[in-house]
Amino acid sequence: MISLVLVLGMVLSACGGGNKGSNGEAGTGTAGATNSGGKTDAAAELTVAYVTFGNTPTDLQAVQDELNKLTKEKINATVKLLPIGIGAWNQQMNLMLTSNEKLDLIVTGSSATFGYAPQVAKGQLLPIDDLLEQYGQGIKSAVGEDFIKASSIGGKIYAVPSIRDLAVNYGVLVRKDLADKYGIDASKINSLDALEGMMKTLKENEPSMAAISPGAAGQSIADYLLKLDKLGDGFGVLINNGQDDLKVVNYFETPEYAELLKRIRGWYQAGYILKDAATNKEGIADLIKAGRTAAYVANLKPGIEMQESRIVGTTIVKGEITAPVSKTETVTNIMWGIPRNATNPEASMKFLNLMYSDKDIINLMDWGIEGKHYVKTDQENVIKYADGVDANNSGYNPNTGWLFGNQFMSYSFEGDNPDIWKETDEFNKNATKSKALGFTFDSASVKTEFASVTNVLNQYKLGLETGTLDPDKTLPEFISKLKAAGIDKIVAEKQKQLDAWAAAK
User: Are 123 and 115 within 8 A, CB to CB?
Assistant: First the structure.
């Protein structure tokens, strides 16, 4: 035993002296250097995963190379961008998080697609309160304490919202050429009846294409027509966005839900809705460009027409079906978090901080490379496509500025209102506010039921809410399986937490 201890001591001593130079002093190479916090100063390598709504940009590598020139200088880190299509996001992210694949920063959010609360309940995201305090002052300044707190669960912060439209109204986006051709005034599409009239006109005149489709793969028609505060996940909601009271109900068993499904089923049978809407994996831009659909339901905001026109490659006009409302899910539906298996959480937070405070970083991720993908105009902070580049041939054209941190520091595009971010700020401030704004449900105590209900939802929701399944036959079965999975327990727990939150407030 004594001999073993002596040998071990010699090995450790040899290892400890391995980084000395010829003069016997500690070397200065990055492999062995440490900072005052005891962390290595070697360049961090970060994998950043985010959602996309079309094909991977052909110039992604070129943009990543330019990004790394900046991040290497600013925070001594390199970034690998990992775009994942919206249709594959949920499955692929679950696989990566559970298999401990390298992930250093990910998009998350309160919708079922992103699964923020379940990720927290499973311990897949790190609490970032201390990291924000130490390395995220740019984030704190830009987002504001109230909106940051809106994402807290159990008194801890696990993600921060991007700065964008923090309220939402729903409506329809239509190809302008078809609207003009068939005398459709998009501004008058302000109700379900008006929406149905538009679809009828389009289908009669363009029978080879769907009149309408969901706004994104993996979403439904109903997702964009509901006047609800989903309280994060939709498993227990407030009717009318909580304006009437704070009573949590299972929306799937309400008469309002049954009536909406019946109407959507009629649209599907009439051939108005994209035939494979429940299983389609293509982004809306691809559907429009391929002539598969004439219009789509979507989240609206100031400037949405120009944003979508660039994405789909043709001019888009809008109809507003609901009024703007601000609720926790509109703040928390797009956020950024640090996974539990991040290799260097400090570096992850430093890069995230750049996404909220560094104009060069933000615009590179939003618009690509100056001179290659865009050029500046004579107007301050206004850009346009570079010569020979347009929406159809650009090698980098994500048009998802709302995703990458602080959109209010992003350039506006020629043709957009140069005051678009001022208008968006006003849109946020003037929206009706849910009585539950700031409440986030902690599903940890019902995580078994939450997982079971999620499985049932994945089995039925898209089929019912795109009209593919007959609600007269399938809705009772859906409700029965939700109850067997424990949705009533989730609703009761959510009501309990909401009541406590309201009392404390």
Answer: no
